[in-house]
Amino acid sequence: MSAQDFLTLNHVSKVYRRNQSLLERLKKTDTGGTKAVSDVSLTVRHGETVGLVGESGCGKSTLARLVSGLMEPTSGEIAFRKDGAGRTPRLQMIFQDPYSSLNGRWTIEDIIAEPIRVHKLRRGRAAIRARVDELLTQVGLSPADAEKYPQEFSGGQRQRICIARALAGEPEFLILDEPTSALDVSVQDQILNLLRDLQKNLALTSLFITHNLSVVRIMADRIGVMYLGELVEEAPSEELFLRPRHPYTRLLIDAAPDMDTSDRSLHPIAGELPNPAFPPSGCRFHTRCPFAKDICRNTAPPQKTAGTGGMFRCHFDLELSNAQAIPPASKARTA
Amino acid sequence: MTTPLLDVRDLTVTINRDGHLITALDKVSFSVNPGEVLGIVGESGAGKSITGAAIIDLLVPPLKRTGGTITLAGERLDRLSPKAMRSVRGGRIGFIFQDPMTSLNPVISIGRQLCDTIEAHLKIGGEKTKRKALEWIERVGLPNPEVQFRRYPHQLSGGMRQRIVIALALCANPALVIADEPTTALDVSVQAHILQLMRDLHRESRASMMLITHDLGVIAKMADRVAVLYAGRVAEISTVGELFNAPKHPYTRGLIRATPMPSADGEVRLDQIPGAMPGLGAVPPGCAFNPRCFKAEGDCRAAIPPLTTEESAAFSCFHPLERETA
């Protein structure tokens, strides 16, 4: 681990097993399971925001839980940089749904003060209250809101409360799991702008998980793209959008409809997402890839390093800088 | 000037909350021309879904339609008896719901659900009904129709289920299809498939469509004309090109600019609209958007701006935006 590295994931995998029957347990047969995260290696540097994108079932939320320590990886290791005293950094999470992630029976003051009390960051009622007021102001709410209950707030305001609660723990590392997916666009912007300001002012290191490519492009310094549990590409944000190296990244960028009304073509990705419990052999994307050759069906692609410091998993070095790079036949296929 | 297929005038929906009447939809007017896709866009709580539900009389109490007219091909839907309305639903008006998980009956096979709908509206008899159902399963792009016919919703993926919901909405050859957030619950790669399918089927059938969504990207690709709703009122109605390139209402422009989208040169901008949409019953006097609007003046706070028609567009704003000369 180099001095800059804040968090390293080394070949991390997580397998969800179904409950085994008594017979299976006695016979000690391995029934297998769903490999939700498969052999992911990733480094987050100090002060950096790394984005993770992918469709549902690609393992991005599982990865967030592994990093947060809510779950243990089946194999591989997750290491945080330790400070002089051997202490691991403080970590906080912001969740997708601000309606279910706040306790409705607690006042806002109780909610925000909890991490302060747990981590013993301030002593005494007055000092804690002063800190709560400060945090509320920081996220754009008023100290008067501290007496209220979560149900008195709109979705966007609740997400601000969640952010204040996360900041109350004075985290060095923040995990954001789809923090704006439940919000309307006009409110989403306010939250993204707030998060961007906080990132800048507090020098936070963070992991930003979302399915929305435009959002991650705004928020992250580097982006990892996941498909069926694997990290298929990882690159600096602008590099990923301008010069994607993996066909899935290219197709994902094109699939989201943009607001250009002059070109109304749609770009679906051929086929459907395979069942993550039974991923395809070889390259996991070969069933939907317009460039797939025999080798893709049989051999898992190696991890390659791009010239700009990015990583991708593909047998070929494809030129995918513009949307026309994808053969039109695959675009026309709709079934 | 063509006669519109669907004409909605001054549609008003109120909520009775312990005797207090709260307006959810306030005199909403728009029309859908034959063969046209009308997009209805707005944030949550703007009244998009209520508009769709009010047209087919599927409002759940305490929501109640209290005024306005709904005319489908010359017939007043708002005057129909509940029984007559039942035959319109799924017959002349097909409905695609947001969540394919809850809009299919989990204990009845796909085939049975299709046959029931076809039988109820087309009345063509057993063998023909089944053939038509199989035909529809194939048309919406599911492999092995015979196998799918016997399967249950839980055996299908989200995208496949939404295809079945689309088949159900279209199988009785409706004149109008109301699609309420048809792709919101789906992943991007699946979303593009479903939109493509809807577009293909729309071109084949020439049915009119009302596409309700909060996603401006979907609107830009699918709609011919767009109605923007804000706090239960129509802010602007315009052709899709006009709306995106020269919006008249400040809210429309705010909404477009707030959507994180990379522009052509790759730069991502993020302009926020201050504040949030007023909740039900908390709509400010005058223009509902005035507390958040950068152009708001005294008259905006005093009176509700009427829907002004100008060429192909209509907007409700006292100080519409000038066409930007860029």
Automatic annotation (TrEMBL), chain A:
Tree of life domain: Bacteria
Gene Ontology CC entries for this record: plasma membrane
GO molecular function list: ATP binding; ATP hydrolysis activity
Keywords of this entry: ATP-binding, Nucleotide-binding, Transport
Membrane-topology descriptor: Peripheral membrane protein
Cell compartment(s), UniProt: Cell inner membrane
UniProt keyword DNA repair, yes or no: no
BP-aspect Gene Ontology terms: peptide transport; transmembrane transport
Residues annotated as domain ABC transporter: 17-253
Pfam (any one): oligo_HPY
Similarity annotation: Belongs to the ABC transporter superfamily.
The protein's name in its UniProt record: Peptide/nickel transport system ATP-binding protein
Native source species: Xaviernesmea oryzae
Phylogenetic lineage: Bacteria, Pseudomonadati, Pseudomonadota, Alphaproteobacteria, Hyphomicrobiales
Automatic annotation (TrEMBL), chain B:
Biological processes, Gene Ontology terms: peptide transport; transmembrane transport
Residue span, ABC transporter domain: 6-256
Major subcellular site: membrane
InterPro entries in the record: AAA+_ATPase (IPR003593), ABC_Ni/Peptide_Import (IPR050388), ABC_transporter-like_ATP-bd (IPR003439), ABC_transporter-like_CS (IPR017871), Oligopep_ABC_C (IPR013563), P-loop_NTPase (IPR027417)
Topology of the protein relative to the lipid bilayer: Peripheral membrane protein
Cell compartment(s), UniProt: Cell inner membrane
Pfam short name (any one): ABC_tran
Top-rank taxon: Bacteria
Entry GO MF terms: ATP binding; ATP hydrolysis activity
Signal peptide extent: none
GO CC term, one of those recorded: plasma membrane
Keywords: ATP-binding, Cell membrane, Membrane, Nucleotide-binding, Transport
Protein family (similarity comment): Belongs to the ABC transporter superfamily.
PANTHER family per UniProt: DIPEPTIDE TRANSPORT ATP-BINDING PROTEIN DPPD, OLIGOPEPTIDE TRANSPORT ATP-BINDING PROTEIN APPD
Protein name as it appears in the record: Peptide/nickel transport system ATP-binding protein
